[in-house]
Amino acid sequence: MQKKMLFKLIILGIISLIMTAVLSSISGLSHERKYRQMEVERGIAGSYAGEQQLIGPVFSVTFREYWMERLYNKEKDTWYDKEMCSLRTELVFPEQFSFDGSLRVQERYRGIFKANVFQSSGTVQGNVKFPEFKSLSAREGSRTELVSVNANLLISDKRGLSKVPKLKWNGAELDIKPGNDLEQLYPGVHAEIPDMKELFGKQFDFGLNLDVYGMGQLAFVPIGAENRIQLKSDWPHPSFIGDFLATDRTITGEGFEAEWNVNGLACSARQQLKGQKKGAIQQLGVSFVDPVNPYALTDRALKYGFLFIFITFSAFFLFEMLAELKIHPVQYGLVGLAQAVFFLLLLSLSEHLGFGISYTAASTATIGLIVFYVCHVLKGIRRGFAFGGLLALLYGVLFALLQSEDHALVAGSALVFGLLTLVMLVTRKVDWYSPGAARAAG
């Protein structure tokens, strides 16, 4: 008897390894479909607009600085004075910066794959104070010659400017032109500030109606001494990103509203734009994630696949030992294969239906098939439905785990502990040296 049990366990171990290989193949298919989804997103971004990061307006003062420098001529062995010239650009940042905008998110499809794109409409307002022009000189006693003063709006994907904006400046509207004085760092546009010699030592208000579209996320770089960004949208699943948390946010089933207030002392963006500090520039914003990504959820479900098959085989084995049934390894394999196919059904259906509907349909079909089959294998309808009840419990717990990622570990641990407790209670009187006497022992 002991040799038969040992042989049976070895066979079940081999079948389990085969089921693991099947689950691995399904996992590979899920990753392949996930990469296809990412390719579609990149394709849509290539023809639409990608993730957007907005900076500005940042004001650039370009000037020439002249100074006399004493040089030495080796051939003539003499010193002489020569006028030197350098073209320099100094950046001036807003004192106050605010953005008040709304966002509308849409789904764009290519076949069965989709990507979330957005259209934003908002108003930029603020003020800027220019320093005294003489303070820009790097050398004492040098002579400076003003070249230009520009307001630069930096945007990561210029295709996202749905219409050419106008910069409101000192009661006038200034034209926006291609390019900017920080082109070596970021793409963007600029407006030429008139009466540039009258700017220094004074403060000016500015405004900008800005409509931008893109895909995936919208981020802002807080470049003012004081920054306030307000966003509202009809998208109910925002993911707030960046280095600064929203000071106030409300999320409902109809959308979200969020507000950020950032002090310039807490942000290094200005030093990073000036090249005084390295690293990724600090930002804040929102990402329009899809909370029910079928590939991510299927991947998470597959992590529990082997546990499901192991529990099923264990339950089968207990029925076989306690009820003195003979269950062939092929029957174990068919039930395990049915559970593996569940994950394939889940993946394929969730690409067309909602994940909840797909999960319900796939689990119902799988449990129904297994119950119909095991009613014959276990020689009784009651046993078959008891086995189906165990499967329904497992699939219900798995769905709860998928919906609550934060509590997945504790719930999964509680499930395993509960099942182990049940097995120990049921088999506490079993003589494993003579399992055929289980009923007599009970």
Summarize the structure.
The chain is an alpha+beta fold. 38% of the residues lie in helices and 33% in strands.
Describe the global form: elongated
CATH architecture of the largest domain: Sandwich
Helix segment tally: 9
Q: What is the CATH topology classification name of the largest domain?
A: Immunoglobulin-like
- Level of helix content? 25-40%
Q: Radius of gyration over alpha carbons?
A: 34 Å
Overall number of structural domains: 2
The fraction of residues assigned to DSSP E strands is 25-35%
| Average of pLDDT | 81
Succession of helices and strands: HEEEEEEEEEEEEEEEHEHHHHHHH
Give the strand tally: 16
Q: Look at the helices and sheets and give the structural class.
A: alpha+beta
What's the multimeric state? single chain
Spans of at least 5 consecutive residues whose pLDDT stays below 50 are: 438-442
Biggest beta sheet summary: 8 strands, mixed
**What is the CATH class name of the largest domain?**
Mainly Beta
Distance between the termini: 20 Å
